[in-house]
Amino acid sequence: MQKNKVLLYGANGYTGQLIARYAKDYQLTPVLAGRNELAIQQLATSFNLPYVVFSLDDATIIQEHLQEVQLVIHCAGPFSHTAKQMVEACIATNTHYIDINGDISVFEKIKTYHAAAEQAGIMLMPGAGFDVIPTDCTALYLKQQLPDATHLQLAFISYGGQTSHGTATTMAARAGEKAVIRENGKLAKKPLGFKGMWITVNGKQRFVMSLPWGDISTAFHTTGILNIEVFTGMKPAVYRLLKFQFLFNWLLRTTVVRKWIQQKIEARPAGPTDEQRAKSTTVIWGKVKNAAGKELTHQFTCADGYSVTAWGSLLIAQKILAGNFKKGYQTPAGCYGAGLIHELPGTQP
What we know:
The structure is a single chain. This protein has 349 residues and is of the alpha/beta class. It is built from 15 helices and 15 strands. The strands form three sheets. Strands 3-2-1-4-5-6-15 form a seven-stranded parallel beta sheet, sandwiched between helices. Strands 10-11-12-7-13-14 form a six-stranded mixed beta sheet. The N and C termini lie far apart (45 Å).
């Protein structure tokens, strides 16, 4: 039987549900999947979509469910616990893989499967969402404008919206850990928020703080620039407080504290409402510099992170099914160009 289906794994999560909802806008009819039978069944009934239920504990079972699947959109995090199983099953069954991951270590891990994916004739593209489409496109655009760039800084500032359970859970799992930058081509650990600075966004000064974002891995793959830092908008008072986090890192890593944080996460709404997302925007900013000191900056505005993730993953899935892909490990801009973000609704120069 010809493989012609998309499997959406982790469909019952906040972002998974958004992807399921918008799939028809991209002429896609995904098979919804996950391990929570009741939640998956209810979601499938709501969207009138097919579904399957399975966990990622048994490689044989995963492969059985991928036999008739051409592409997997993987949304079940934390990806540090789930990506390896799904990637290996995709390679074994010649199934394309994309996900909405933003974890640097996961990007680095999936990159090691490049040769195996090439041999299987499939593409592996983690970060097919807000992590990292907008910033990856910015990185490539700036690299094209200044080909000999040696330093890259990227920043995003969100206006409105809130964090979903899945994103918050991934962040909580990293509580107390150090940040990461790209330094002379190598990954280097730094204290969280080790650097803060003011940047000009839409004619106004905004404060941003460094953080471990996926581009520390992906932008290096896309551009080859040796020194990369990523920042996000932050109130200066909060930044000053975070500068002392190192004193409490041992406590944040304890099971008791992480369990308490997780309970607080579960007590919150699953994610932003449609109205909140509609009112939310994100400014993407980037700067490159070469050895001679020449600098170039670039910025644009896109939709909120969750909408970008849903639309971006579906757009890329649509391209793959149309035969528009490159074998092996790929990044969004590296495969589809710096203009990819401008194919999504809500993006403004």
